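Typical record was shown:
=====
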Amino acid sequence: MPYPKAKIIHFLPLLIALLLSGPTYSQNTQYDRLTFQRDSLFALLLSEQIDSLFYSGSYDSCMLIIDKAIIFFDKLGLIRYKIDALTRRGAIYRINGKFGNAMSDFSEVLQYYQRTGNIKGEASTLNHIGAIYRLRGDYPTALDYYFKALANYQKINYLPGISSVLNNIGVVHLYQKIYDKALEYYNQSLSIEETLKSDEGIGTSYLNIGDVYRKKGDLQKAANYYLRALVYANRTNDLDGIGTIYNELAGINIENGSTDDVLKYLKLAYNTFLSTNSPQRLAECHINFGKYYQTIGSISQAIKHYSQALELADKNKLLEIKSDAHRQLSLLFDKQGNIVAAYSHFKKHIGTRDSLFNEDNTRKSIQAEFFYRFERQQEEHRIVEAKKAAEYAERLRREKAVKTSLIAIISLGTILIGFILLYLHKIKLKNEELKYHQKEILEKNEELQQQQEEILAQRDEIERKNIILEQSQQIIADKNERMISSIEYAKTIQNALLPKPEKFSELFSDYFVIYQPKDIVSGDFYWVNNDERFTHAAVMDCTGHGVPGAFMSMIGNTLLNKIVMEWKVSQPSKVLEALNEQLREALKQKEMGNIVLAGIDIAFVTIDKQDKKMYFSGAARPLLIIQNGEMKLVKGSIRSTGGFQPANTKPFEDVSFELVSPTSIYLFSDGYADQISIAKKKFGLQRFIDLINQSHSKSMSAQRDLLFQMMENHLHGADQLDDICVVGLRLA
């Protein structure tokens, strides 16, 4: 049984001293019984200490004793202990990047398991060797070893080993960017881990699947799998996994352009990595801190965190993170107009990146040499084994010749007697065989009759099931038709709630509306209202699309009518605060334990016709305004309406504008900018803004046609991923 880490460290000097002394022999070079028992007991203790040091991650301490231990086991003839020690040493060499040494150890282990017919041990060693080739970047060879390991594990139906290899095959496909294949193997591994009820294995599978979806650009699915992995990481107290997941979730929110929960996730990740004392993880966390503060405009904090990441990277030789930190600082200073600092960091980024490339070349050269040595060792070993096999075969041949002569002499007399007895026995057997065949023919006839009756019964049963299947298919088709009819009717209701073109023509000098649901009904909608003094306009983006989004849009439309038309609230920020409260009350989100996090992002403007002013407030949505040919993007609050609301949430704020001629405004959901082309490229908010800026002088209908055409060119046959709503209004 493994010892606690403290005891292992305590016994290290004693273990090393005993190893150096080696096994003891009696004066006639033969073990006496007491000596053999003592050395065997020490070998068992030594093997347990190696395992304990290895599994606790104390690789340096493990290597202090493992070389001497292998010699010790070899002298005692304890081959099984030696093989286990070689396996541990090979794994440590692989972890430390010494692939040639690792391959040498695993080669000897593999030959032992193949020679002794140990299928499980052979499969485990093939899996180790596959990992080495994967780390070298030789993916075809890695897959060859992995599939050999998989075949062996499947022979003995060893599920933990099968799951491990399937996971490793998925990793290779992920590195090769064959994401669908990676997902296929990860899901197979997950299915086995769920059968085994392994919390650690299930958590690892969810984390890997999350990585695939993030690489594919499906950030929502990635976030869902990271959250599932977090449950199991917490359950197994996997601190590195917990911190990594929080850092990944923060990165996903930053990539989505949403700062919701980013700071919370980053602080959780940072505190976790502090407890594990992981410089690399802390540096990665500082990079995301920098991106977050840069996103919200806190430049000094961004510089601080990028600099801290750079300091950790320099201290711990984390070249990839060092390169990324210099790159982020270069981009930041460039945006500030500090060309000198930007250029300085850019040169350091390029230099670090080049050094990464050079180090990679060096590593590959060293690996090539190691593998050349490994192949030579293999060839030498094969020659020795062939010689031993030839000597053994010759010895067997001589022994067989002697045995054959003795057997021949005895057999000659026996054969004569045997022929006589055999002749008499054959006559008896012939008679018995005739009786047996007669009986067998009768039994076959009865069996055929019974099978014919069973076939007729099965035919009737198949016909009955076919009738039931046809009826079931008709029922499903009818239900599907009714469901589609219901959704189409819901679309009619939703369209009836939207403002009519005549309403826009009455209130604005020129306008356009682009309204394209992803499905039959939409989670985006637009709204206008007018009274004696004020004209109001809004575009809302509800959580979800399709039927759930449509329900939310109807709730939002009803609440806006109530707040503005009944309660007479005209100030945009007050309208959004009221909408937030009413939405949370309608969905019962204030109740404890309610997990309904649905909400509405909204851009809302009020035009004061008396004072010739316009007021804007946004909940996670911006306003695009053009006055006198100058465009300005006005960001709304980072919070949404509805959903989870932290206690320190800031209130919504108003931004006012004097109405001068010409003035045009654009309200829009995130659907247009977030559409992804068939080449997996997002259209992007900046490209959308540039398109509006280039065409704002044209009529609103011409701008609408241009937006339609650009989106059609961008998608180029790809599916629409989100609802689209864009409203352009010319106010003066």
